[in-house]
Amino acid sequence: MTVAERIQRRFGRAVGQYGLIDDGDRILVGLSGGKDSLCLLELLARRSRIQRPQFTVEVLHVRMENIHYETDTTYLQDFCQRLDVPLHIITTSINLQPSSLHHHPKPPCFLCSWQRRKQLFNVAQQLNCNKIALGHHQDDIIHTALMNLTFQGQFSTMPALLRMKKMPLTVIRPLCLVEEADIRTYAEEQGYEKQLKQCPYEHVTNRTDIQDIFDRMQQLNPEARYSVWNALEAAGKLTEY
Where are the strands (E) in 131-238, listed by range? Predict the structure, then answer.
């Protein structure tokens, strides 16, 4: 089985197993320009062309003007045009100045992620989309579970399906069964363009340390990935209604 076939199969299994797509859905894809979101968009655009379920796809790229994290928007426009999906681009910013109101200021990664998510929620409702698709893969979900366990003392993660309680939106993660290594290989095979500038904070977070720990876990037990995933499944952490 090729990497492309394995990704396609696991994407399809995730959609069916967690009930991620329904007939009549209007899905807004959060497109950062990285390999994960490009792969997600390609899979969803292809899936939208089959007869059932019938759904539409739109795309949002959020540019952060005061974070040196940049993607070639011309490439994204061409990519979306080839897939015949409409692309919306919004430019926003975050306040990086420490506030005297907070003894423990939020890190830039949190603020940036929060602002991007806020824009996704706003645009989704403006476009009458009922679902937001994010490009988190299985490694992301497992790393988040390990981070929450280590730093927050709770066993939780980013679910494959999350129905928002305060707005008529559902967040879905159709790459939840796909391993990052497969996406990396597929991106190279397809010639995905890399981002012009990487986030300056991406290597100074706890997530990087957790990734190293998870790599060590897999050295100790090659089945560690599935052990953590099965535990999340058994505890009902992968769907939240």
Answer: 131-133, 161-163, 170-172
